[in-house]
Amino acid sequence: GNGTEGGVGNTPPNSTTTSSSSASTPPEDNLQVKRPIQLTLYKSGRLYTVLLLSGHPLSGIEWAPCGNFALVQRVVSNLAGYNAGVRRGTIVCAVNGESL
């Protein structure tokens, strides 16, 4: 032989680093639904219903217990709830016709 071996150098395999800017899967992913969610709301003396059709309809709505209801504390702009008219200070009376 000519003393040359067809050896392969120690080249590391292509390492692809997947960086997630959102750290981990948000808990809202667990709220994904296969059907619409109907919220019965009360605000400024008016009782009304909104229908949320998004894959993550409750994403961006934060509420807290308030007696037999829930009080919306925060709504993120441009998400399903906000676009349907849910606002801070709204009282959630029922979800899908079921009282809380």
Please sum up the structure shown.
By secondary structure, this protein is mostly beta strands. Helix content is 4%, strand content 34%.
Number of strands: 6
**Whole-Å distance between the termini?**
84 Å
Query: What is the 3D form?
Result: globular
How many helical elements?
Answer: 1
Q: Beta-strand percentage?
A: 25-35%
The sequence of SSEs as H and E is: EEEEHEE
Rg, alpha carbons:
25 Å
Biggest sheet descriptor: 6 strands, antiparallel
In round numbers, the mean pLDDT is 77
Helix content: under 10%
Helix and strand composition category: mainly beta
Q: Which parts are unreliable, with pLDDT below 50 for 5 consecutive residues or more?
A: 5-23
Question: Could you outline the blueprint of secondary structure elements for this entry?
Answer:
Layout (H helix, E strand, L loop, with lengths): L36 E7 L2 E7 L8 E6 L2 E7 L4 H4 L7 E5 L2 E2 L1
Antiparallel strand pairs: 1-2, 1-5, 3-4, 4-5, 5-6
Walkthrough of the structure:
The structure is a single chain. With 100 residues, the protein is mainly beta. Helices cover 4% and strands 34% of the residues. Strand 1 and strand 2 (46-52) form a beta hairpin. The longest helix is centred in the C-terminal third of the chain and has 4 residues, at 80-83. It is globular, with a radius of gyration of 25 Å.
